[in-house]
Design goal:
Blueprint (H helix, E strand, L loop, with lengths): L17 E3 L14 E3 L1 E3 L4 E8 L2 E9 L3 E2 L3 E5 L5 E8 L2 E4 L1
Parallel strand pairs: 4-9
Antiparallel strand pairs: 1-2, 3-6, 4-5, 5-7, 7-8, 8-9
Length: 97
Amino acid sequence: MLQKFRALPLHEIKKAELQLKHRVKKDFILTGRDVVGLFLVKRGSTINVVVTDANIAISFLAKAKQNGRLGEKITVVNSLGKKLKAVVTARNSAEIK
């Protein structure tokens, strides 16, 4: 019964993708509970936003209003001051579908 509550060890750790939540000892087995994804978008930074629809893609710069990890939805403000919701896709990049 308690087996389902244990955290499974991480098998692959990609460089510059995760950070520790707390200090760990040498030879400690890392689990999903010990790490969290890095912020790829920092609040206040200028990011590239791509709007895609069918066969067209439009790219523009916008200012991030909040921090965001990969796959998270954040608020950005375009040059006209309009607030938009975008999904973080890479460092300083987001997408609106």
